[in-house]
Design brief:
lyase, 9 strands, hydro-lyase activity, 260 residues, globular, 3-stranded mixed β-sheet, alpha/beta, binds octanoyl-coenzyme A, 44% helix, Enoyl-CoA hydratase, 12 helices
Length: 260
Amino acid sequence: APDYKYLRVTEEERVVTITLHRPRSLNAVHGAMAGELVAALTAADASSTVGAIVLTGGPTVFAAGADIAEMAATTSYASARFRKDAGAFMDVFPRLRTPVVAAVAGYALGGGCELALAADVVIAEEGATFGQPEVQLGLIPGWGGTQRLVRAVGKAKAMEMVLTGRRMGAEEAERAGLVSRIVAKGRAEGEAADVARVIAGGSAPVVAVAKECVALAAGEADDRGIRFERRAFQALFSLDDAKEGMKAFVDKRTPEWRHH
Ligand code: CO8
């Protein structure tokens, strides 16, 4: 098995568990981690011994978003790392035949929330928190959040969350439909593994086609909104308010918007 630096990957009973592993930055997703995630998901999907994938951040945090320090150091979308379209790695999710069960403990913010939204089933434990705080950074969600959050929780809640950055606790997230189930603290990964084992116990082609049908009903086949969001993110990324917002986070202060 390949060695990953920012992931832990284990396989047991037809279930691959992928754990995001950058504990000192709350699993913030930088370019290197995103690349590893695509590799690990693609490898699991290609394996005939794998019937389901668990995606988790471990027992304390799912992911606090894209890596703001890395983004702040990127002057524009024309610069090297971003030339290839920093959101494109998310296209791996709709391509997977193997269902992905997200196990969420703690923060799932920004890109972290978007990873959960891209999963097929989301199990959250008490204390889990979901949100799209990009507006506070002078940005918008860029990994599908504006599209999939609307589908998950409806327009009013999605609009409020994206426009204000308000976070949603596990209970509200379950009521709204973002989460399939809430479990006791410390149980998200175990319960997600149980769900994944049940899925992996089914006939692989039947499961794959069932997933495809539900994904179609959930709007996953139409990627125009995702692509529009990505371009809009890129357009806003180079504005001075985005620079100020990201810099303010890095400097641990409140941003001062130029365009107020
Ligand atoms: N990126 C980089 N570093 C982070 C991030 C992040 N998203 N989140 C936390 N960290 C770091 C902190 O800087 C801190 O580092 P250090 O110890 O060196 O100071 C460490 O993790 C611990 O964080 P805190 O001290 O802030 O921990 P708290 O418990 O006080 O707060 C929070 C936890 C509330 C989660 C807080 O860390 C926070 O608000 N984080 C940022 C959340 C956020 O805004 N996420 C959205 C990011 S933007 C995004 O995801 C856009 C996706 C699309 C991008 C497409 C192109 C790339």
